[in-house]
Design goal:
The chain is mostly beta strands and about 180 residues long. It has one domain (about 45-175): Immunoglobulin-like (Sandwich). It contains one helix and eleven strands; from the N terminus they run αβββββββββββ. The strands form three sheets. Strands 1, 4, 5, 7, 8 and 10 form a six-stranded antiparallel β-sheet that branches. Strand 2 and strand 3 (about 60-65) form a beta hairpin. The longest helix is centred in the N-terminal third of the chain and has 21 residues, at about 1-20.
């Protein structure tokens, strides 16, 4: 008799625990999200064009374009520098409310000269010191405090290039 009662009790416990474990399977919590789309200068990762006519804001996005006026590009075997330490080509600003790690890379569509850093982005901090130089071969990872800005000077080296070559690519800034 005890064995039957123990078996029945064990069966009840097993069935109850199976139903108890599966009784609560989902929960839904709704929260509001403020997800506005802003211009490059007003986004969380702020990109602001400097005074150069070669760096502009087009459709609310930063653009570097050396085909201004009647120009179709830069000269072969030349170096073009856009901006300087006191008047940068553009700036990168941490518009988050706190410090964030920023990563900066340049992905060239096709690198015609793998021995030369053809496109360089010199990142300069608020003290005027160079933090890093990003190119198609090097990247930057560093922390920026809230509202901290990096000035950017762009250098394009077309040494050994012909008028058929392209140094076009994509600058990626992530935080």
């Amino acid at each position: 008799m005890r064995l039957k009662l123990a078996a029945i009790a064990l069966g009840i416990v097993v069935v109850a625990s199976a139903f108890g474990a599966s009784a609560f399977t989902t929960a839904t919590v709704d929260r509001d999200a403020s997800l506005n789309v802003a211009t490059d200068s007003g986004g969380l990762v702020g990109l602001q064009a400097g005074d150069s006519s070669l760096v502009t804001t087009s459709s609310d996005q930063l653009a570097i374009d050396v085909t201004t006026g009647t120009a179709t590009g830069i000269n072969p075997d030349s170096t073009l520098t856009i901006g300087n330490a006191t008047s940068p080509a553009f700036t990168i600003t941490n518009n988050f409310g706190n410090a964030h790690t920023f990563n900066v890379t340049y992905d060239m569509n096709s690198d015609p000269d793998t021995n030369t850093d053809n496109v360089q982005f010199e990142l300069i901090n608020n003290s005027g010191g160079t933090v890093a130089t990003v190119s198609e071969d090097t990247s930057y990872e560093g922390e920026l405090a809230a509202e901290e800005t990096l000035d950017v000077v762009v250098t394009v080296d077309s040494t050994g290039q012909t008028s058929n070559d392209s140094l076009t690519g994509t600058l990626n800034v992530t935080a």
